[in-house]
Amino acid sequence: MEPYELSLAAAADAIRARRLSPVELVDSVLDRIEEAEPHLGAYVTVTAEQARRAAAYAEQEAARGRWRGPLHGIPMGLKDLIDVAGMATTASSRVRAEHRATADSTVAARLGAAGAILLGKTHTHEFAFGLTTPQTRNAWDRGRVAGGSSGGSAVAVASGTATFALGTDTGGSIRVPAALNGVVGLKPTYGLVPRHGVTSLSWSLDHVGPITRTVEDAALVLATLGGHDPRDPASLSVPAADYRPGADTDLTGLRVGLPRSYYFDHVHPQVETAVRNAIGQLEALGAQLVEVDIPMTRYIRATQWGLMVPEAGAYHEAGLRTVPELYQEDVRILLEASEMMSAGDYLRAQRSRTLMRAEWSRMLEEVDVIAAPGVPMTAVGAAEETVTWPDGTIESVSDAYVRLCAPANITGVPALTVPVGHDAAGMPIGMQLLGRPLGEPTLLRVGHAYEQTQPARALATAA
């Protein structure tokens, strides 16, 4: 096995035991970038020389016995909405062509202090306003979408061109590309991870979280990211914590919610079969399955768009007025649509969210986690714009991908996507686990327990 193929946890153990140096690991990943990146387009920019210098310094620290923790010497990618001092934050947009960050974002600073090594910035759907990331190709099939908006981050992790990466999630933008590329994606509880220095799409829905190879890796990254930051008005006063799950796979006493409604509606049969099989595996580990009804499902789409579109429009008001031609057409149309939404529409969406949060809180008193599909179908072809379901319903690809993820953004509950197999074409399928606010330890425990019963996952091979 080459160093770039190692999980974060395995690489961290090897670095701490001095069986692997940060220099060897970073060189291996950079070689993999050189091999795969021309075919995949995961990165906006690669900072190879900076990464090599940081790896040499991390190696010197390790030789002196200074080990900063499990991220020491681990190479990472950051979605190009996340500020790093002196670097461009382009948001994969011509609008930001001249931008340079003057300071680190909170998450970049915390990762740097933990010893993580930046490889470069990964592509996003322009300003995170989309679900496909058209610049980037799926790590398993270059003719298919990467998913979005954190498509570059997911493809980098899936292909071995980053050991872990950060994404942002406003309506599924961590979980969708993670599911479509066969990796783990975690959208934390709203406010758990500070967003200071991260370009906003919709401030009341935005989250920052890790994309990793394994659930244990996600826990290790989250432990570094969490903790209060007063510069983010939504930041929770919750101290940093150790989220690493134990080795025990016994789920006896755990109540897993099995949705009777919404999450299995208009879902591809192969996705449904894989997810139900994975839920069956949770039951085999001792979990009790409890059927639940998802509340207020008829309002989910309207609430998601009723919050996101006006907030995005407000953020981009100046740019839309001065340089509209610099936005990609799909994003510009959505931003222009925001000007047609009234204050009443936005307030109704806020009221709907308040009611939905209360109903979800009641539902989550009955169960510890909810298990469901992360996305209704695997990665579609890059040219496909719609999906037609067996009952004749036609749905846009973006609406389909956001549909099962949006409830966790509206309510702010944590959500984890875990790979649970492949369809007949070999494309990855993801199961989504949703929990109570600040219920990350339980989500990670359940995801890790499932993962421990499965064969080790190989990296994608499309490159």
UniProtKB/TrEMBL annotation:
Domain Amidase as annotated: residue spans: 24-444
Family annotation (PROSITE patterns): AMIDASES
GO MF, any single term: catalytic activity
Pfam families in alphabetical order: Amidase
InterPro entries in the record: Amidase, Amidase_CS, Amidase_dom, AS_sf
SUPFAM superfamilies linked to this entry: Amidase signature (AS) enzymes
Annotated protein name in UniProt: Amidase
Organism lineage: Bacteria, Bacillati, Actinomycetota, Actinomycetes, Kitasatosporales
